[in-house]
């Protein structure tokens, strides 16, 4: 499947960094956070990094504008249902992550695969985070390979 649009949940350091990198590769990005102010902060981080990239001659101004134009921010999680791939980048808090996966359950598309870098215990089968997991990986490279293949 050709990935044309990626949803990123969490517009913090990791989420905004991934959003920028993905947009640089020519892919549309929807970046989601819980409040407008956090979405705005994530977009500001990206603008700042792009502007530094222009100063360091990594991008032209035109390229930076184009990259930014591929990124849209929202607080409406349901909008990620149009994405080909969704990346979770929210707080490192298992309860918060589990609640998010419960919310995502409502809009889950069967073709979405869950590749998760987590070695957890799903022995009771009740963990909302893990019940969706198709494969668990330990290495980032392995995540990339599995996502692309
Ligand atoms: N920052 C890093 O270098 C780094 C490296 C490796 C892994 N990670 C992992 O990436 C994840 C994010 O880290 P970070 O540094 O970006 O954190 P961060 O605190 O900068 O950002 C987290 C963002 O998630 C948002 N958020 C929280 N709950 C949400 C929800 N239910 N829906 C939507 N948005 C929500 C917060 O408002 C915040 O903007 C963590 O799991 C962290 O362990 C981070």
Summarize this entry quickly.
With 149 residues, the chain is α/β, with parallel strands linked by helices. It has helices at residues 13-24, 36-55, 61-69, 94-105, 140-148, and strands at residues 5-9, 28-32, 71-74, 85-88, 115-116, 135-136.
Domain unit count: 2
- Number of β-strand runs: 6
For the record, the CATH class of the largest domain is: Alpha Beta
Helix content: 40-55%
**Unreliable segments of 5+ consecutive residues:** none
Strand order of the largest sheet: 3-2-1-4
How far apart the termini lie comes to 9 Å
* Structural class category: alpha/beta
CATH fold descriptor of the largest domain:
Rossmann fold
Q: What compounds are bound to the protein?
A: nicotinamide-adenine-dinucleotide
Task: Return the string of H and E elements.
Answer: EHEHHEEHEEH
Cα-atom radius of gyration: 16 Å
> Judging by the overall fold, what is the CATH architecture of the largest domain?
3-Layer(aba) Sandwich
The number of distinct helices, counting runs of at least 4 residues, comes to: 5
Largest sheet: 4 strands, parallel
C-alpha geometry? globular
The CATH homology group name of the largest domain: NAD(P)-binding Rossmann-like Domain
> Could you tell me the strand content as a percent range?
5-15%
Residue-averaged pLDDT, rounded?
Answer: 84
């Amino acid at each position: 499947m050709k990935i044309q649009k990626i949803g990123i949940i969490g517009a913090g350091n990791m989420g905004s960094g991934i959003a920028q990198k993905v947009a640089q590769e020519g892919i549309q990005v929807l970046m989601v956070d819980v409040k407008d102010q956090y979405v705005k902060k994530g977009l500001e981080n990206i603008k700042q990094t792009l502007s530094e990239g222009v100063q360091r001659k990594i991008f032209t101004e035109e390229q930076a504008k184009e990259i930014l134009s591929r990124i849209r921010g929202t607080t409406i999680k349901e909008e990620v249902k149009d994405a080909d791939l969704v990346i979770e980048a929210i707080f490192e808090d298992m309860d918060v992550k589990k609640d998010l996966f419960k919310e995502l359950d409502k809009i889950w598309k069967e073709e979405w695969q869950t590749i998760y870098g987590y070695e957890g215990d799903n022995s009771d089968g009740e963990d909302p985070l893990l019940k969706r997991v198709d494969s668990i990986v330990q290495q980032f490279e392995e995540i990339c390979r599995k996502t692309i293949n």
